[in-house]
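name: query_chain
kind: protein
chains: 1
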Amino acid sequence: MIDKLVQWDRDLFIWLNNLGIERYDSFWVFVTQIETWIPAYVFMFILMFWFFPKRNAVIATMSTIGVTLFTLGLTRVVKDYVQRLRPSNTPELAELIRVLQEPFDFSFWSGHSATSFAVTVFVVLVLRDKSKYVYLFFIWPILFAMSRVYVGVHYPGDLLVGALAGTTIAFLFYTLLRKQIRTDDS
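structure:
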């Protein structure tokens, strides 16, 4: 069963990756760079300080940083344990796919997907009662994750599991944050 899932994941990756159009390459390379999204992080932090008293905003901001660091750390542990080669580093795929980036660490699960979903879900949970527009933040992790297939460095399964892991981490941290804010407000 696992072999069948891996094959479907590989086949879906090849199909999706080959949908890429050369004139959009620079856009997707831009989207996939972490630095591109720094303004989104800054905006999220500004919103926390806009909507919450300073003490709670600091706690929420520090929790967001905690979510990020925890997700990055767990991702590293899983990648080193699973050791799935990236599509861009798989010799038998070399002639079948478009590769726009060539990282050399492992593929499963996607750190881009896990971290962007963890941060976004966490921030949305924190701010959802303050603004209905906060859900627009989901544009970021969706584009970010999609870019990883486009540039040839992740299978769709890597992205899906990364998104699920990040979402789970966000909910866990949010549960802890809610308890912390209640404790501090008492």
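note: The two ends are 52 Å apart (CA to CA).
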